[in-house]
Structures are given as structure tokens and as C-alpha cells.
Amino acid sequence: MKVVEGINGAINDLIWLKIGIFLLIGTGVFLTAATGFFQLTHIGHWFKETIGGLFNKKSHTASGGSVSQFQALCTTLAATIGVGNIAGVADAIVIGGPGAVFWMWVAAFFGMMTGYSENLLGVYFREKNSDGEWSGGAMYYLKYGLGSIGCRSKALSSLFKKIGEILAVLFALFCVLASLGIGNMGQVDKIVANIEQAIDFPTLSSHIIYSSGGQKVTLYSLAIGLTIMLAAGLIILGGLKRIASFAEKIVPVMVILFVLGSLFIILANCGKIGDAFATIFVTAFKPSAIFGGGCGFTISRVITSGFKRGVFSNEAGLGSSTIINSSANVKEPVKQGMWSIFQVFTDTIIVCTMTALIILTSGVYDLNSGAITEKGATGSTLVAAAFNRVLSFGDFDFGGVFVAAAILLFAFTTLIGWSHYGAKAFEYIFGAKYTFVYKIVFVATIVLGAVMTSSIAWDISDTFNGLMMIPNLIGVVLLWKTVVRVTRNYIDRRLGNRDISPLLSHHEDIQNQLEAELYLEN
Prior knowledge:
Elements: H1 2-34, H2 38-41, H3 43-50, H4 69-80, H5 87-96, H6 99-124, E1 127-128, E2 134-135, H7 138-147, H8 154-198, H9 202-205, E3 208-212, E4 215-218, H10 219-236, H11 240-268, H12 273-282, H13 287-298, H14 321-325, H15 333-362, H16 379-388, E5 392-393, E6 396-397, H17 398-430, H18 435-451, H19 456-478, H20 480-495, H21 508-521
């Protein structure tokens, strides 16, 4: 196990500390420049097409093998708004100080175009599977997109095609493995830990099943794990439609409740809001803040404390969100790309900023000395302490219960969202008719997350997450001309009123079908 830990640690450090942040931010900067700062120059348009589209019947309409645009957004948010939005932000501030928040915003700004580009490509290169469902994602634009590069030279075209096919399989494989780790067991581990800390049942917690490495696994842990398994199984085994329906109902409520709870704490400490923002900007250019910001933006769903156990908060660049966004009932690839911009905005600019302000205005972090005033508090416990400063009634700390409930919802919806990512990746490798095997394994694995004590499983899962990123970003960067071409085509038609044919799909038959449907709609 020590040898495995050593090898995995070296790979993990290489991917996330030495390559990951620079590759992700670099890709975002490049795509932002290539598209003419689309997220900024067309901010009014993408807000209108996303938030404004929520009141449009089309965004809530699903047909055939698709889900609605709103369901796709909610399922994506279900997978990305995880415990990292609570614990990850806290860890970023602990590591780099308040200035880390500024660098999270910067990373999110450029991450908007990374997410936009990969989801545009996901829709543009998607296809229908044997069940009539849309299948898309990084696997498909790696296979078909890279295969179309250098088409004027047969030798070059053949080379890119082989590289694309290999990278597509690698991405799918890493996605399946990551979904069972961080997308499943890691989330369950956090749910169990926070429930046991917030609400104790001595009858169950006093019965120790076994202990390892100083950690005890109780009958209470197993009971929670089995409950989560049954609840998740009912949703996951029902397929994409049931997952999307669940996300559509739960995610908006989840986000709104957390935002309202956060606003209550922030307003209760409103006198410190100005100082909090001032401290963020003043300390933003300290070396420790830059390092912490990278960690905060990276830590999406903290499984245990530490940078190595995180991925990007909004998953922009990871390629995972493209899988569900490609299933949306949308004809214009650019439209789904704009939903991805909104998803990054919601996840990082809104939710993560709320968490940061809770910490910085509540007094658990001393803005003058930069010290944590709650001894031993990190991650979710620091946020819980901030809530308890306002929501404690005698011996009852309601803040801790609220944070535990938030983590339960955030982690559970992340688990549900990742089940679909893994299923579609499994489908790409083995075919649609065998995805039920993956779903059964995924549901059964949930119990392991409740009773497992070894941290090596989480470290390896983080590595798989990082390994997913590399082939995905290779594809996105090499296909940047397609992103620009499709974007310009959309802008010229929709905003410039030019009478030109739309670019809707790489596949000629799908292009013709969607173009005809779009013509009838207009």
C-alpha cells in the first residue's frame, strides 16, 4: 500500500500541482481570447438565454431521448455543487487567506469559456444511441473531432483519428473509475461523517463494527450507508429521465435554501461585509493567496481535508458536464454552451462567494491577524462554526445541523449526477445494453463509502479525475477552430440577422434533421 501511495502521490502532484492549474487556466484564457471574450461581450445575451429562458416553455420541454435544458442544468449543478462549495472554500481561505477568493473569481471567469467550449463541442459531435437517447461528451468530440483534423492529408487524418479514439477510451475509463470514487464513495463518506457529528444515535453509534487507522466504523455508519443506497438506487436505476426529474425538483430548492441561509448569516454580520471585500482585494496578490485560490477553485468536493482530494469547483475543463449537457433538448450547440457559462457563474461566483462571506463576516476568521478563531476548525466545521455564531440556541447548535443538512443534499445530488456521467462513459466502452451492470455496481458501491476507512481510495480517485482532464483539454484546444466557427455562425445569424445556414452538428444526417426542425420553428 505504501508503494501504491507513493506512485499515486507522484502522479497526483504532477497532474494537479504542476500541470493541472496552469493547463486549465491557460486553456480558459486562450479560449476567452479566441472567442472575443464572449462571456463578457455577450453577457446580456447569455443571461437572457439562460435566466430569461427559465420562463420559456422550450427550456422545460423534453422529447424523445432528451432531457430539457433546465433539467440538464439542474443535473449538471447537482454534480458540481458539492461539499467543496462549503468545505473547499473554507480550506482555500485557511491556506491562502481571504485573497484566495479573488483568484477563485478569476479562475471562474476564464473557466466559463472552457465550460462553454467543451459543452458546445459535446452537443455538436453527439449522436443517438441504440435506445434513441442522445449520447455525447468528451468521448465523442475526441473520436469524431480529432478524427476530422488534417482531413486533407490522409496520413495526418488517420493519425489524428487513432489518437482521438485512444484518448476517448482513456477519458471514458477514467470517468467510470472517478465516478465510483469521488463521485460515489467520497460523497457518502462526507455525508456519514457530518450526520454522525451533527446528530448522534447512541443505540447505533455505540456498536463498533471494526476500527482501522484510528477510525471507527459503527452500526450507525452502516445504517446511514444502507439508507443512502436505497434512496439513490430508486433514482439511479430509473434512468436518465428519473435522474433529471429528481435534479429538476431538488437542486433549485437546495441552492435557494443555502443562499437564503447564507444571506441570513451575512446580513446578521452586515457591518463587516465592506471589510471582508476590502481584505479579499488587498490580500489577493500575496503569494499565499494565489496558492490558496488555486486550491479553493480546485477543491470541488472535499472528501477529507487537503488539496489532493479535490477537483475543480465547477468542473469546467474536466469534461464531465458535457455528458449530461449533450442530452439536452437543444438544437443550437452555442445555447447549451451558454447554459454552461451560467452553471459556472452559479457554482463559483454565487455559491462559493456566499460561503466565503459567511466565514469572513462571522468572526471565525480574524480579518486583522489572519488567524482562525475557532480552534481546530477547518473545512465544513469552520462553516458550521460560522453559522453557530448566529444560530445557536442554548446548547443546541442549529448552525451545525443546517450545514450537515446542506452537505447531505449537496453530496447526495453530486452522487446522483455522477452516476449518469459514469453510466454514459461505461456505455461508450461497452455499449448501451450493458449500462445496467454499471448502475448496479454503482449503487452497491455506496455502502463501501459508508464503511471504508482507507484514504488511498480517495487519493487514487482524485488522480483519475485529473487524468480525465488531460485528454479532454487536448481535444478542446485542438478543436478551438470549431468552437470559434460555430460561435461566429450563431452570432452572425442570431444577433447579426445574416441569412446563412446554421452549424448544428458534425454529422450530416443530424445536421439536416435539426436544420429542418429549426426552420419549421422559425
